[in-house]
Amino acid sequence: MKIPQLLQASGKTLFSFELLPPLKGDNIEKIYNTIDPLMEFKPPYINVTYHREEVVYKDRGNGLSEKKIVRKRPGTVAISAAIMYKYKVDVVPHIICAGFTKEETENALIDLHFLGFDNVLAVRGDTLKNEKVFLPEPGGHAHTLDLVKQIINLNKARYLDEELENKTATNFTVGVAGYPEKHVEAPNMRSDLHFLKKKTEAGAEFIVTQMFFDNSKYYKFVKLCRDSGITVPIIPGIKPISTCNHLNNLPKTFNIDLPEELEKEVIKCKNNQQVRQVGIEWAVNQSKDLVRSGVPVVHFYTMGHSDNIRKIAESVF
Fold first, then answer.
1. In this predicted model, what pLDDT tens digit does every residue of 70-112 receive, in sequence order?
2. CA separation for the pair 26, 164 (Å, rounded)
């Protein structure tokens, strides 16, 4: 079922979560072990991220290095299909610009259409570690807006090959990402909202936010979106802090602020087990407040681990 329809039909705040495909060498049982403890909370859908191939450079000696492309995580399409058919739940695969040509993107979307997927989340994807700025794949998209347009074109049976016979229209509902604290590359929030609105005007029908730890920033973001004419559902994304390193890594990686009160509680902790408990309690309070405010879904970033997400869900849902 399409995400907007799921939200309209529920009449209450729903529980959903996002999964990372397992690292190369792991098997799908690791995914199942993450999902199983969370299914009792009846998620209407599960998100599965997409990851580009990564480039590594191996030292060959004599000042020379060898460029090697590695795929660190298995394909999102296959994993999403396995989850959908095992658990009988809707799955929202991510589709990214980074590392993919338009043709590769079209082929992935065709596969998803064949397999019966109704929803996708369109995101640009991250820069490579050795890149100072995002560089699109030759023949690929530089911006999420163009990716959204390609997906919507497929919904209208407009393929890259205009002479293609037997064209079949897809039927994807497209979601995009939103940033309550502004995308790291946006010069200001006004600019960020301008391009977010363009994505909804192009056909995006729901927004999932970047993680945040202060609910007031989410509420302010929603108001700014509504004042800008963005009317689609805005789903809050929550990640419980779980290690001491998150104090530095999360703000640097995701361009977010951590509240002083949360920082103080983490600093008091003697080990990561205590930090994990602080993160659970903080996320429970966040989630309860979001539920009281009537958000359509509280969406959790599992990062491949579900024990803390389960404890939060037990307290909230």
1. 666 668 999 999 999 999 999 999 999 988 999 999 999 999 9
2. 39
Q: What is the pTM of this model?
A: 0.93
What is the number of other CB atoms lying within 10 angstroms of the CB of residue 264? 10
| Domains in the chain: ranges and CATH | 3-316 (3.20.20.220)
DSSP states of 248-286: HHHHHHH-----HHHHHHHHH-SSHHHHHHHHHHHHHHH
Q: 3-class SS at 46?
A: strand
Q: CA torsion sign, 180 to 182 to 183 to 186?
A: positive
d(CA 43, CA 36): 11
Distance set, CA 44 to CA 2, 235, 310 (Å): 10, 13, 16
Q: Determine the 3-state secondary structure of 193 from DSSP.
A: helix
Q: What angle do CA 22, 23, 26 make, to 5 degrees?
A: 75
Residue 2 has pLDDT above 70, yes or no: yes
Cβ–Cβ under 8 Å, residues 151 and 113: no
User: In this structure, are residues 120 and 112 in contact, taking their beta carbons and an 8 Å threshold?
Assistant: yes
